[in-house]
Design a protein that fits this description.
Strands 1-2-3-4-5 form a 5-stranded mixed sheet. The protein has a single domain, classed as GMP Synthetase, Chain A, domain 3, CATH 3.30.300. It is an alpha+beta fold. It is globular and about 50 Å long. The model has no long low-confidence stretch (mean pLDDT 86). It is 51% helix and 23% strand.
């Protein structure tokens, strides 16, 4: 149990690094388009996902691999991660969600690089898989969640 909790804590601590890497690439592409062209925001997101995917898969830390990014719908940007040392049966998915949801929400709400997504009221989705490729969970943050005034 303690080993699982330690792993969860390491994942939690390193999520900030993951956001920085992934968001940095996305924002770079998005800003480039806004400065030099005027495609739709959907097209910009598709290109940002393609740019992220050029570097995938990439280990973000000892536990987490970013496998890909995609644009599954008109205004949703999704990141797909693998927890490389975890198997589905050893993870309390509810506890994982309870831990990760507020961290992800706070990052989407406050991260400077996420501003462009907030302006377009984009749903940010994060899918997680275990080391065998089994789906664990998806955490989605919608505009209704991150634009709430407190």
């Amino acid at each position: 149990m303690k080993n699982a909790q330690d792993k969860m804590n390491r994942i939690k601590k390193r999520l900030g690094l993951a956001f920085g890497i992934v968001v940095g690439v996305s924002v770079s592409v998005i800003l480039n388009h806004y400065l030099f062209a005027s495609p739709s925001f959907y097209e910009v997101m598709v290109e940002a996902a393609e740019e992220v995917n050029k570097d995938c898969p990439v280990m973000l830390d000892q536990e987490t691999r970013l496998d890909s990014a995609s644009v599954p719908s008109e205004n949703t940007f999704m990141y797909n991660y693998t927890l490389v040392n975890w198997v589905k049966d050893s993870i309390d998915v509810n506890a994982f969600n309870d831990t990760m949801q507020p961290i992800i929400l706070e990052s989407v709400k406050t991260n400077r690089e996420m501003q462009i997504y907030r302006e377009h009221k984009t749903t940010m989705a994060y899918s997680y898989y275990d080391m065998n490729g089994s789906f664990l969970t998806e955490i989605a943050v919608t505009a209704d969640q991150y634009l709430v005034k407190e």
